[in-house]
Design brief:
- The complex is a heterodimer of chains A (407) and B (179).
- Chain A is mainly alpha-helical and 407 residues long.
- In chain A, a hairpin with a 2-residue loop joins strand 6 and strand 7 (349-357).
- Helix content of chain A is 51%, strand content 12%.
- Chain A has two domains: 2-55, no CATH class; 63-303 and 333-406, Cytochrome-c3 Hydrogenase, chain B.
- In chain A, the strands form three sheets. In chain A, strands 1-2-3 form a three-stranded antiparallel sheet. A three-stranded antiparallel sheet of chain A has the order 6-7-8. In chain A, strands 4-5 form a two-stranded antiparallel sheet.
- Chain A is globular and about 75 Å long.
- Chain B has a single domain, classed as NADH:ubiquinone oxidoreductase Nqo5 subunit (Beta Polymerase, domain 2), CATH 3.30.460.
- Chain B is elongated.
- Classes of the chains: A mainly alpha (407), B alpha/beta (179).
- At the A-B interface, helix 1, helix 2, helix 4, strand 6 and strand 7 of A face helix 1, strand 3, strand 4 and helix 4 of B.
Chain lengths: 407, 179
Amino acid sequence: MSSQSVSTTSSSIETATGSAKTMVLNMGPQHPSTHGVLRILLELDGETVVKAIPDMGYLHTGIEKSCEDKTYSQAITLTDRIDYLNPLGNNLAYCLAVEKLLGIEVPKRAQYIRVLMVELQRISSHLVWLGTHAIDLGAMSVFLYCFREREEILKIFEFVTGQRMMTSYIRIGGLALDPPTGYLQRVEKFLKMMPGRIDEYEELLTGNRIWMGRTKDVGYISAEDAIALSMTGPTLRAAGVAYDNRKVFPYSSYEEFEFDVPTRTDSDCFARYMIRVAEMRESLKIIRQAMSKIPPEGPVRTEAPGIIPPEREKMKTEMEALIYHFKIFTEGFSPPPGEAFAAIESPRGELGVFIASDGSPKPLRVHFRGPSFINLQALPKLIEGQLIADVIACIGTIDIVLGEVDR
Amino acid sequence: MTETSKQNANVVVERSAVADKLRGWSPNAISEVIEFRGETTIVVPRNVLREVAERCRADKELQFNLLSDATCVDRFPLEPRFELNYHLVSIPRRDRVRLRVRLSSDDPNVDSLVPVWPGANWLEREIFDLFGIRFNDHPDLRRILLPDDWEGHPLRKDYPVEGYRDIAAAATRYTRNRT
């Protein structure tokens, strides 16, 4: 990467202003506050940022290319690894796109369990965000509290899916397996505990003068600029635009749930913090409703011979089912030629999956519209003209996951 | 999936209105309209892409103000080989549409949409990086994910999944390290 750094510096920053007053500072890629391996070239005039150029690709692993070499079902395990704080959401977006391509429906029970899991995931992702953002700005204890609660969510994931992080639990046509007995009691316990804990974080931060000093009026972006730069998610909602895919283009039965889309108009780092805290509370509301909606019995996988693996019992007793099982796991299934785009509201914004099929068992093209990648584009807009210490706050409130930026 | 398809079914009339609207503006603005799984794809000739995009964004009845995504599909060895897909969202009207441009393999270039949606900047850089498609008048057309000195464009179909590497040399190195 060394040759790249030289050329980036010479072609853009030094010739951009050419001023003797400014200096160029290389921030990252190995810096804790960049939340991964993000490198930013900062041109500074004293402590003020004149120009910023983000540089990424350090985590590029060619996931989209790898997906083209896997069958539709095999590619699910790769989706976990894109946005590693939101594996269930990635699974969901990918499976929605494949299901749209196939034109199959998912049983209601599976849809509600999907909603339950994805909302738990949203809370856990926001907890990681809040913890790391707070530690960047010097509030150490919030980090410890947030990770304590996140651990509880990860335990629920481990109980239900068998994995703490790379779950691959949401599959094409439904779920990988029926959740174990007693999972709702665990979620119930978490729901009882969580509202008080969110209050605790707010007590520590919301009225805190240092916190307000570091975040208020920092990193402002207008709603017009945010839309023009294709921003989505909490960052856009903090600018006053109530764009949330769960409301605007509902998927997975979200239209049956009652929840609010919190918005603010001040559009600074503090507003984005407030939005995410409010979203955690909304997610708790959705989880509560999902729990009452999930029927105790029923299929978690749709019936589509040749596409969805048959039940274990049937496989042992029916010849047809055995043949389908063998065919699905050796050669996969072939959706009709065409394209499908499915978008969900990930914790970071609109996570879209575009799949093009040519009628073969492997996708012709899988593209992930990563909200981190696109929101990061607005970073120079947020930090130019601000102080260098505010760069940290701005990176934090965009809430990037470098795995998703680089894919 | 039912909800999604139902919701799309409801706006089908309005959606073809998008195509009609563009046709009304210029008969050459659209070469094809594809409906598949409730999604509308409007195929646009390459030379009018930017004007059509500008219409979609600025028109009072269309209001596609958010460029959600832009990506490319390589249909090698078919021609025209590349398909660029732009996913537009209208936040006020709650609508989605896809614009598509087809490019042949000799000299794949198209007008950049950065003047229409500044957010197209990195999306186009990504396509340039991974597919080698050039965007005219792009303010900063550099590789974005791969190093500047990378050879080839990995998401092209004629680029092997395992990359170009000397497998024999890698095997020798491996055995040498083990003994």
